[in-house]
Structures are given as structure tokens and as C-alpha cells.
User: Fold these one by one.
Assistant:
Number 1:
Amino acid sequence: MGAAVEVSNLVKQYKRAEKRAVDDISFKVGEGEFFAFLGPNGAGKTTTISILTTTLSKTSGEVKIAGLDAATQAKEVRKNVGIIFQQPSLDENLTAEENIRLHACLYGMYPYRPLYSLMPKEYKRQVLELAEIVGMRDELFRSVKKLSGGMKRKFEIIRSLIHTPRILFLDEPTQGLDAVARRDLWNYINNVRKDKGTTVFLTTHYLDEAENVDNVCIINKGKIAISATPCELRKRGQNLEDAYIEIVKGGLLND
Amino acid sequence: MTKIGHEWNAVLTIAMRGVTLTIKTPMRLIMSLIMPIMMMGMLGGSLGQNMADGLGFDFGKFMLVGMIVNMLFMMTMMGMTGLVEDRQVDFTQEMLISPISRVSIVIGQILGAGFAAVICTVGTLIVGACMGIVLTGWQMLFLLILAPLMCLAAGSLAMLFIGSIQDAKTANMAVSFLTMPQMFLAGAIIPIANSTGILWALSRMMPMTYCIDLARAVVYKGTAEYAEVVLFNPLINCTAIIVLTVAFLLLGTWLYSKSETNR
């Protein structure tokens, strides 16, 4: 299995920061793998994802995404990745469909047309199909402003997947969602993984979401605390959450 | 889609987002029409009544052309602050993660902002007509053809100043500081043929000077007033506009891109 994500000795030090946000970390994520990147607030998860998705420059180290160098082949890397950001990034002044159309056209999938009715048939089919899957067909043409947090998240997922990325980065994707919305969302992502073989790189604070991943990497204070399978981690506690708390607290005590 | 086709599609997509936002926000449209009443009707009208005597040419038409270009610049530059606002609502991430050039993002934003600017120009023409100052159909058509180039010049200049600004309020202030002195220094409503020293140097550094002069060259072509009103050969104007626009666009985009990734 080839590596979808390959990180070697990655370092990030923000300007005017005394400490490194990411401190010499290395890990690999295989093609088609479901990978969880866990850690407490401020551990360096979002910084790492930002570097992997080319929206933030690294201080040193090497990052390869789908075999491409994230620093020198950024545009090619961006073609291969989809991301659901920690903070919602839909344009609230547009409708959900307009947001999706904007994304699809920026990725060069379809020529831009000012109205949905003028877009190619294939686009309409794809959007309606995705909206149907997540149960949001009726909301497709509503202003994003009028949608609930869960609805917005679902549309962000549709948007991030419409260009069928090889690697999907999910930065705390279920933050603020109710239990039903969370479950729907995971059902959909799991189906995408099964159907398309998409590599999923997840960060989350809900550890139950990481129970079924292939590999877990825990980062604490910018350093990798442990890399293991959930099964290996569970041996340290009753479940993944116990093991996680033990590792993170241990890390804090060691400071 | 070819590489160039993809970039053009991205420019169009981002520009049309600006157009959609303008259409969906009635206040923006209203402001685009109110601005000319304030700028052309009040400021221009007052100057015309009190200072136009003895100029040797029709001040009304001189001011109308200057004000049209000024409104294009002002509205486009104000629209460019949308890039900074997008940063604050996290929409910038969506554009920056796309596999497109940063220059395409900026050009798209400029053209989108230019839409409101062109509406403003229509408002300026209407206010001008109410004041008895009219342009011919051909003159208006030529100005409309030149409008995208002028919007690009304005947006590029704005990028130079707001490219590295992270806060929308600061960006709005920066644009305000730029637009007001520019109106006087570039000769939008006051002739600058006799400017000297630092004012002369500043006027020559501003792309709006050449845009206004090019617009006046179009409007005054073949008239006796041409030599008194137009400062430079239109070729010099075009060269200066293109050189300054490309330089400011590349530098501004580089600052914008750097400030996003190089934190």
C-alpha cells in the first residue's frame, strides 16, 4: 500500500511564537486508510492539517501528499485533497447550491454558468444525487444563512467531495453537531470510503469517532506522543478514550 | 479543461460571486447609486459653481469624465476589502485550497468588485445628465470598453495596500486613506497640469492619473480643448497603466499569498 500522506521531521514555528507549534513530527498514512490524528486543544493538529493542505508554510521538514511535494507542487496537491475545515467556510450570502457550484468550478470540473439551470446536466445530476444522499435536497437552494449548523456541515461535506479527492481531511468535522447529524454524517463518509477508496485524515475530540480507524496518531504539545492501531491503544485502557487520556495526561505530567 | 481555461473559469467564477453578492445585497446597489449623487452632484457641482470660471474649457465635462474614473477606482478599491472580510469569515480558506493561481483569485475579486463600480458609473452618468452634462453614445461605449482595464488598475493598487492586512476595519481605513487624496492628486476634478514638486511626483505614480487622462483623450478627441485637457499621449497612458497594473498586481498578490501561508 503506497503512502497517501508522508510527513518527515515536520517543524512549524509561528512568527513571534516562543515554542514550536509542530515539533519535528513524522508519520505516514497509507492509500485508502482511515487515519485519526488526535490531541488536546493547541496540540498542533490544525497547524499540521493546514501545512498538509498547503494553506500554511512549514518551517522545515518534508511533506508529501499523494506522492507530491506539498511545498513545490502545491497546486497539484490541492487537486488531490478535499477538506472540511474546523470553522465553517461556506459563503453565508449564497445558497448551498451556489457554494457547491463555486467549488466545482474552481476545481475546473465544469465551466461556470451564472444560473443553476444553465449548468451542465452532469453537474445537476451529481449535486442532486449528493444532496439526496445526505437528505438535503429541499435545502439545496436555500440561503446558507437560514440553515442550521448540521445542515451547513453536510453541505460542506458535499462540497469537499464533489471533486472526488483522493485524500479527505476532516478537521473536527462534527464539532457542534447533534447526535443524529453526527451519525448521518459518518454513515455518509463511511460509504464514500467504501465506494471510492478515499483516504480519510481525521482530527476530532469525540474519541468514539476514532474507534474504527485503521491507525491513530496522538500529538501533544507539537510532538507525536504515540502512533498505534486503536487495538494497541485499547490495551492501555478500557477503551480508546481511557488510553488517550492516559497518554495525554502522562505527557503533561512529564513536562 | 486546459490550464488557461481552468484559470479563466476560476476568474469568472470568483468575479460572478462578486456580482451575485452585489445583486443579492440591495444596500450595495443603493450605495452604488447614492455615491454619484454625493461625489458628482454635491462635490463636483459645488466646485463647478465656484471654481470653473476662467479655465478655458467646459469644466462640467472635464469633471464628469474624472468622476466616472474616480468612481470606478473608488468602488473597485472598496470592493477589494471583501478579500479581507472573507479572511475573517473563513471563506478565504475555500479559495486558497482550490487548485488555482492566487493571481486568478485576485483578478476574479477585482472584476467582481468592478461590477458595482460600473453600476456606480451609470449612476454618475445619470447625475451628470441631470446637471446638463452629457456624453455621446460613442464616448460612453469607449469608456465602458476601458472600464475593465481601469478596474484592474484600481484593484491592483488596492491589493498593494491591503494585501497583507488581516483585519477588515484596517483594510477599509487603508482604502479610504488612498481614495480621497487620489481623487485630487490624479486630477479627477481639479486640473493638475501645473502641479510641481511632491504633488507632481505623486500624481505620476498613481495609475488613476493615466486612466483619467486616457478617458479624457477618448472624450475630447478631435476637439479644440484636447491640448488643454489631456496631459499625455494615449500610448503613454496605456503603457503606464499596464506597467503599473502588472507590477502592483503581482506584488499585491504576493503579499496576500505570503500573509496567508507565511504566518
Number 2:
Amino acid sequence: MNDVRAVLGAKSVVITKSLSDFRLHGVIKNVSSLIIFGCMAVGMFLLARNVTLFLIRQVGIGAETLYGLVAVVLFAFFVSAHFMSLILSYATLFTAREVEFLQALPIAHTKLFVLRTGENIITSTGVLLLIGTAGVLGYGAVFQLAWYQYLMMMFLVMIPLVVIAGILGVFLLMVLILLASKIGVRWMLAAAIPVYSAVLFLSYRITDVMSMVREAVASAHGGSPAVVEISRLSATWLPHGMAASALRCIIVGDHVGALLSIAGLLWMLLLLAVVVVYTGSRFYYTTWLLVGELRGHHERVHRARIAGLFDLRRRWTRRPNAEAVLKRDILQFLRDPVQRIHALMMAMLVVITVVFGGLSVLPPMRTLPRALAMVTILLFDGFLVASITLRFVFPAVSQEGNAFWCVRTAPISLSRLYWMKFILWVPIVLVPAEVLVWSTLPMARVPERVMLASAGMMAFTVVGLVSINLGAGAYFATQREDNPVKVAASQGASVTFLVSLLYLMVAATLLVLPVARVLAGAPAQQANSMLLSAVMIVAAVSLSVSVLANIVGILALRKDF
Amino acid sequence: MIEIRNLIKKFGSSIAVNDISLTVDRGQFFGFLGPNGAGKTTTIKTLAGLYRPTSGTCSVNGFDVHANPISAKRSFGYVPDQPFLYEKLSGREYLHFIGGLFRVRADELQARIESYVTRFEMEGFIDRSAEEYSQGMRQRVALAGALVHEPTVLIVDEPLLGLDPRSSWLVREFLRQKAAAGMTIFMSTHLLRIVEELCTRIAIVKGGKIIYEEMFDATGAQHGTLEKTFLDITR
């Protein structure tokens, strides 16, 4: 075990040094992380507590329905954690330079696999775990639990749930790599995407999200909780169902039931860990070698086909320097298999959301709950857009990479370089954002003018989100890290993501009251004026945020390289 | 011509370059020497606009590199000690990219690239992805990239690092011809034999300060061999 201890020791030294960086940049990064993570955790705690109180006292929701809604939230949480792990594990386990270095050392592949899987779970799901745990504790606070019940929620429910999600991500990736080595990357993707979507859809149906919402609405009108009983039984064997069941039992003081659900969760975790460690011991080294071969082969085949419109030898405009930067960024993106696959995965998530949105219609509700439901859907869309922006826009400046010297010593202004990236990414993010708005908001049965206002709000929000991510990406740029996934999972990226979420919440909240007034039947002229005012305020906020973030970004580009 | 005036560059509390002043005249082949950590690369990076000076100025052909960067950068070419390229672009694409940045006319650029591909014997790899390149291949592509806009000043940091004997000879011959044709070359290197062979003037830097400067007549007769001089004064 000395080898494992040495690797862990080196890691802890790196982390300690990074946390005790007393240079201005390091202090700003660490202090802002602490403040933002802390505020986010406290905010999530208060939000979960107040929403639970609202649902119990104002809406009059029953315990069973509340349990069902918690299962829905945990489902979204589980899928997010699993997806993050899946995305990041490709870098952490296969393409990171550190892995190449470690593979050359006399360390057993199984140990290496376990170490990297552990690191992957921590880095990919750490922020989600913080937010999720704060939310669960806020939910528990409503019921004034004993201290050990909070500990049970944290250590026996939330952490096992996240670890299961993380392990599943790693396991799935190894299966996909093995499959790609047998049938090729394209066929693997062609097979994996429908299967993955089907599994997600099935889990969504089993969790019976719409029934939960219908039941919550029915509770508000004094309806029966019969539907929830059925869905509770069908979702209990899924990890998020077990976690929800455990939380419910902890809250009602049913310790036997809680321990049974926790035992189920831990048993699933153990089983999965054994399967994954076995798979890792058999296939990690093989899949690591395969990734190297697949990358080389795939890139050579792909390169010949891409150039065309983006061929650097041809000139289309009278500004060859700006054109060269734009083409280079596009070519580098298209030729990087990690970028392509992640773009495909993000597109898949958007398509799944669009399909789910199209298939679901919320039951009739009173005005304020309907406005809140609409804003919640809009926030979910925003969350997806923020994730896309974080993954692709945040690393855009870092992607200049070690070769940044050749741009820095060329006669092109750094602000032009920055704006080229901005111009490239705003439309790319705007398209899925608008598709999401137009396909998911009909679920809330809102009138067309509200849809238009939401689309307008989303357009300005996209400008703000791209600016925040590009600016912060430049400020926290790490040109020495050539893996964009690692950049998008860095400490700076986490801080940026939380700032983006805060900004989204402010923008979405500005819409609640005008929408509620419109839904309450305000006259057309008054409704239009209120909605327009709300969009204008969002525009002003977004443009202010944008100006600030872009100034920070442009100034950061001038740092020593 | 290159002019560095009272250049100081600090990183936190440590001083990497400590009040360096020098002028390299048009057509001079200037050798910038010094032991590891002496401040050579920091000086060169500041001169190339990659570092902001703590104080002092650097100018190339009369343009201040930090006050008037676009004009200054248009007039020089730069090759770093580790010439990282864009891994996903081929060498040829990289050269077209650089040509675009420097606004070289497309037809002229094409002709120059072909000429450098032949000159540096890059035919065998120029259309392959840069991630497959060895250090020597990268060095040759980066050098060609620094020259596609036909600069009058060339700033090179360890240009022969990692080159095989033939590539090294190719680059040396090229630099010699360019210097003879009037190009100003500012070169940092540890290869003292190459300095004796190519440079017309040298400066030795230590602890961020220039401790020795001399017009060099390529024989090293004044102080015996350059190696002996270097070892004596950097002891």
C-alpha cells in the first residue's frame, strides 16, 4: 500500500499548496470560493426549508405526496451527478497526463483504477453533493430532527446516493469504450444514445414525475393521495427512490424503515462497487490503451473531412486575422473527440428535455402556483443552458493552451481575440436555449405573450451567461491544462457555475409577478407593458453583468503568459 | 533594431531581470547568454510582449512593445524555447493561421510557406497533425511561422534545442544567411560553439543583470575560447 500512500500524499500536498496560495489571484479565488460555496449552501438550506414549509402549510400537501416530490428532486439530483461523473471520468481515468505518468509506475492497475475513480467522484460530484446535502438538511430542519438524524441523512443517504451515481458513470464509460473498440465509435454512439435515453425516460416514468405534480395540485384542492401510493411502490427499488424512502422514514421516526432503506442503498452501493472494481481490474488497462488507439485513429479519419468551409488556406473575409482565430477555434473544437462527444451528449440532454416537455402537460392550477411552475421550468431550462455554457464557454480562453504564445506575439489585439470568442459562442448557446424555452413552457399552459417574454428574457440571459463564463474563464484561465473537461471542473469553474445559477435565479424571479398578473387576466395592454418592463429589467441586469464580466475577461487576457 | 531600457521584471518579491539596458543594431546577430535562471527567457518574453515589465521599456524598430504592441509585433518574429503548437492543426494549417494573424496576402503566404517547407525539409510531416510532431519538427514549424510575415527582427530562444544534426545545420545556415542579408537577430542559447560561429555581438547575463558585453569577432581570440570566458565570469 506504500504506492497508494505515496500517490495520495502527493495529491494532498498539491491540494494544501493550492489552498494556501497567498498571492492576490489565489486569495481571491479561495476566498470567493469559500463565500460563494458557503452562501450557496446556506441559500439552498433556506430555500429547501421554506419551500417545504410553504408546501405543507400553504398548499396543504400530504406527507406521502411530499415524499413523492422529494423522490422527483432526488431523481434529478441523481441524474445530474451521474452525468457529471460520466463526462469527467473520460479525462480523469483515461486522457489526463497524470494517468500516463502513473501508468508508467509500478502500481497495480486495480489500485490505480480505484484511486482515479475516487478522485473522479469527488471532483465531479462535490459541488452537487454540497448543494444536495444542504437542501436535504433544510428539508429536515422543518421537522426539527435530532442531531443523529441529520448525520444519517448526510452520511448514510446523500453520500451513498452520490457515490452510486458516480460509480455508475465510470462503469458506463468503460462499457462504452469496450463497445467502441468492437463496433467503432459511431456505431457505439448510435446504439448508446437511444438506450441511455430510454433508461432515463423509463426512470422518469417510474418516478412518475407528473403524478407527483398532479398530486401536489390535488392536495392543494383537498384531493386524494392514491396516485402517490402507487408511484412510491414502483420507484422504491431505484437508488433515488430508496434515498427518498430513507429520508421519509427518518423524518417520521420510523427507524426500522429508515435502516431498511439505508441497508438497501448501501447494499446496492457495495454490489456496484464490487462489480466496478472487478471490471476495472479486468479492463482498466485495456480500455486505457484502447482510448489512446481510438483517439489517434478517429482523429486521422476525421481530419480529412472537416476542413471545407473552415479551411485556413481559404479567405472569406477582409479581416484575415479575425477569420484565422475563428476558424482555428472551430477546427480545434471539431477535431477534439472529447469536445464532439460532449457536444453530442449535451445535445442529447436538450433533446430529452424537449421530448419530455412535449409529452407532459401540467394540470390546471391557480394563478400563483402556475406562475411559479412556469418560472421553475424556465429555471430548469436555464440550468441546462448554464451547464452547456460552463462546459464549452468557460474553457474557451484556457483552450488557447500552451500555444497562446503565438497569438500573444502576433499583431492582433487581445480584445479582438476575446470578442471573436464571444461572437462565436453567443449564437451557439442561444439556439438550444430558445429551443428549450419554446418546447418546455407550453407544459405550463401559458399564453403566447408570456412565451415571447420568456424567450426574450432567455436571449438576454444567454448574453449574460456567455459573458460570465468567458470572463471568468479568462480570469481563471489555465493554459497549461489542455483538457477542457478538467478546466470546466476546476475550482474557478465551480464558483462561476454558482454565480451563473444565482444570476439565473435573479433573472427568473423578475418574471414571477408580471406572469402571475398576466395569468390572473390583466388587460392585454397592461399585461404587455408589465412583461416588457420585466424583460427590460432583465436586459439591463444582463447587460450590466455582461459589461463587467467582459471587462474582467479582457483585462485577464493581458496577464503574463 | 532592438532597444531595451532599464528593464526590471519582478515576480512577487523576486527580481528576475534587474535593470537591463541594451541596444541591438540593425543587422546584428546578438547572442544572449547566461547560466540557468539568469533571466534570459524572462528578458526575451518581456521583449516579445508575453510579460509586462515591472518598469523600463522594450522597443523593436522604434515601436514600444507594450505601448504600441500591434506595430511592434508586426515587425518581429518570435520563437520560444518550447514552441508549443496547436495539437489539432497540421503544420501547414498552423502556418496559414499565423499568416492570417499577420494579414499576409493569401498568394504571398502560399508561396512563402512552400518555400519554407522546402527550405526546412518539412515535406514529410507538414500535413500531419502537430500532436504527432517531435521537438525538432515543432521547432522548424515554429521558426517558419515566425518568418512568414518577413520580419526585419527575429527573436529566438534556444532555436537549436532538440534538433537533429541535419536540422540544426539547416537552421544555422538559414540564420547566417538572414543575418548577412540584414536581419537583426536576438538569440538566446547555451550552445557556445554556435554563438562563436554565428554571433557578431554577445552579452552574458547573471542574476538578472548584464555582467559582460562584447562585440564578438567569431574567433573568440580576445579571451581565449568563449567557453572559458563564460565559465570565468559566471563562476
